[in-house]
Structure formats: C-alpha cells, structure tokens
Amino acid sequence: MYEGLKRIFDLVAALLGFIFLAPLLVAIAIVVKLDSVGPVLYLGERVGLHGNRFRICKFRTMCVGAEIHGTTTAAGDTRITRVGRFIRKYKLDELPQLINVIRGEMSLVGPRPEVEEHTSAYNDEEKLILTVIPGITDYSSIRFVKLNEILGSENPHELFVTKYRSEKNLLRLEYVRNRSFTEDLKILALTLIALIRSAAGRVEPE
Known about the structure:
The chain is mainly α. It has one domain (2-199). It is built from nine helices and four strands. The strands form two sheets. Strands 1-2 form a two-stranded antiparallel sheet. A hairpin with a 5-residue loop joins strand 1 and strand 2 (53-59). The chain starts with a helix and ends in a 7-residue tail after the last helix. The mean pLDDT is 90.
C-alpha cells in the first residue's frame, strides 16, 4: 500500500510542481543557454532501482565535458559556470529531476542515485540501497547540503571516497529500513528547512 500511495503522491506532486514552476524553469533554461556554450540540461548516467541505469536530469552548471576530470565537485571548482554557481547555491539545478519523478525513474524522497563508480563499491549491506527507487532528497542530502564546501579543494574525490561515502550510505540505509509515507513527508519538510538555512548562509560546512 505504501509503494502505491508513494507513487501517486510523487506523480501528482511532480506534475503540479512542474506546472507551477514552469516560468522559473524557462527563465533558468534561458540564462544557462546564454551564459555558456553547451546544452541546457545535464543528462548524467546514474544507477537506480535494482542496478538499472538511467539519465538524471539537471540544469547544466559546468562546462561541457567537465566529468572527464572527475565526478566529485570541489569548493570553488573552476569547471562550474557563473550561472551554474548561482543555481547550485539554491539547488535550482535539481528542479528538472521532476521529469525523472514523472517517468518513474526517481521519487521525491529516496536514496540519492550515484554513478557506477560508487555503487559498484557497495558492500553486501549497502546493496540494499538499490532495492528502492532513488530520490531527489533523503537524509544524506540534508546532512550534506553543502558537501562541496565540506570536501574543500584539495583531493576532494579521495576525501569523499575514504570518509564521506560510507557515512552517506549509512544514512541511505537508515531511510531504506525506516521508510514510510510519514517519514517521506518529514524528510521533505526537513529538506525545505535545510535549503532555506543554506540559502541564508546559516549552515556551516564541517
């Protein structure tokens, strides 16, 4: 019953959100296109439910071909465009993921999908993360709302892999084991609070 209710909620909320936010989405698409050469959307491959791959939809915030130099974003990353820096600050680049929710590839709430480099390193316990539909937000998104600043600019990928990847996975597992419709609503509320605090500069990177 939970899964069915969750899907209905996701679909209705994503459709309404897409319609309500349409003027903002169009405005962001225009400034992204005018700011730098390249497509408006970034369609990066991610690993979702049962290990199935899909293309995550985001507004492009980096120069074309940025992933050649790694998938971890550092503080002050020079690959980020001028407009990209602004929309990443307010998480506006995440809005096109409503398309993924409508398609059923993602949910509003669920473990954040990762690239294969990280999912292929999951241990047996962490593989439980791939038994649920990935989401736009979860406990790890709230905990690491300013992950790039936490990682800093010196060896950010190594720091993520050796220290923070396992911590994020523990938070994802916590969601998988305790998920419920009430928990989803709680996470959405906490995410909104975290975004407001982050935009106001009230979240200090650890």
